[in-house]
Amino acid sequence: RYGIVTRETVLAEGIPGGFSSLYGELTNLETLGTARRGYFVEGLGGAQFALGAAIERLRGLRSDEPAGPLVLAATDPANPYGASLPWPKREAVEGQTLRRPARVAGAYVVTLDADPVLYVERGGKGLVPLIEPLADGELAAPLAGALGALADAVRAGKVKRLALERFDGEPIVGSQAEALLVELGFRQGPRKLTLSA
């Protein structure tokens, strides 16, 4: 399931005994040459074990070119947020209640250059920007790109039908994202914007 095992990933999986219960086995895999110990992912625990293929893949991904938007299931092992890494925190404006992202089935996260930009709530009813949604009074460019990637994922059948009711805790109809979502092909309803493949 994982090409790289760290203390954080073991804790996120809820393995009884935690990382220390697996450490001996991971060391045995290293002795056998099946796994390597090293520091492969910056910002995670120092004791990291990886399969050779995973290390080669990481090396192959090194690039100065920015990665485009990527839509992942929130529970996908490729999504480190909420498991190995904390979800980003935004400050709520007075009177605003921000929903917190979570690794739950049916939820999605859209990343841009490996940074989380947008969280899609379970069931596709709400969008939670993980960055400040506005820049100079307009929808922030990374967020607009994430919305475009989300619409593409729905049309490609990678994400099920969306029936959006909320954007950043407020009604979607009349929100800053409404015009762009309609332009991307979402259908307007009295209280929802919908898109399906």
Describe this structure in words.
There is one protein chain. With 197 residues, the chain is α+β, with helices and mostly antiparallel strands. It has two domains: 4-61, no CATH class; 69-195. Helix content is 27%, strand content 23%. The strands form four sheets. A six-stranded mixed beta sheet has the order 4-5-6-7-11-12, with helices on one face. The protein has a three-stranded antiparallel beta sheet with strand order 1-3-2. Strands 10-14-13 form a three-stranded antiparallel beta sheet. The longest helix is centred in the first third of the chain and has 15 residues, at 18-32. The chain is elongated and about 60 Å long. The model has no long low-confidence stretch (mean pLDDT 88).
Write a short abstract of this structure.
This protein has 197 residues and is of the alpha+beta class.
List keywords for this structure.
27% helix; 197 residues; alpha+beta; 6-stranded mixed β-sheet; 3-stranded antiparallel β-sheet; elongated
Topology, element by element:
Blueprint (H helix, E strand, L loop, with lengths): L3 E2 L1 H7 L4 H15 L2 E4 L9 E4 H10 L7 E5 L34 E5 L2 E6 L5 E4 L4 E2 L2 E2 L1 H15 L6 E3 L1 E2 L2 E2 L6 H6 L3 E2 L4 E3 L2
Parallel strand pairs: 7-11
Antiparallel strand pairs: 1-3, 2-3, 4-5, 5-6, 6-7, 8-9, 10-14, 11-12, 13-14
Structural class: alpha+beta
Strand arrangement in the largest pleated sheet: 4-5-6-7-11-12
Order of helices and strands: EHHEEHEEEEEEHEEEHEE
Mean pLDDT: 88
Distance between the termini: 29 Å
Fraction of residues in H or I helices: 25-40%
Overall tally of domains: 2
**Beta fraction of the residues?**
15-25%
* Quaternary organisation of the protein chains: single chain
Number of DSSP E strands: 14
Q: Unreliable stretches, pLDDT < 50, 5 or more residues?
A: none
